[in-house]
Amino acid sequence: QGMGFLVGALLINLSEEEAFWGLHRLMEDKEMEGMYWSGLPLLQEKIFQLKGLMERHVPEVLRQFDAVGVDMAMFAPQWFMTLFVYLFPTSLVLRIWDIFL
């Protein structure tokens, strides 16, 4: 699933030991392991939270998504499961991770 993208990004930017501890921190301290458990409970929670944020801040975008049949599950999983590695340039991903970590 998306964990390979995380590990790859860590290994490209850190030593093996730092990458190991970085992944450990993501999974344990930031509780990201739920993103990869059976049933993907954390992923479902994050998609629900994203929808709530969109309802609050950009309801017109959410209405347009609904009008054309776009479900968050069509695009959000790759964002959350890869922590944006799949989608954004490395420089932006590292900035997001700096804020997150």
From TrEMBL:
Transmembrane segments: 79-97
Domain (Rab-GAP TBC) ranges: 1-101
Keyword flag Membrane: yes
Keywords, in A-Z order: Membrane, Transmembrane, Transmembrane helix
Keyword Transmembrane helix: yes
One of the record's GO molecular function terms: small GTPase binding
Protein name: Rab-GAP TBC domain-containing protein
Source organism of the structure: Eutreptiella gymnastica
Lineage: Eukaryota, Discoba, Euglenozoa, Euglenida, Spirocuta
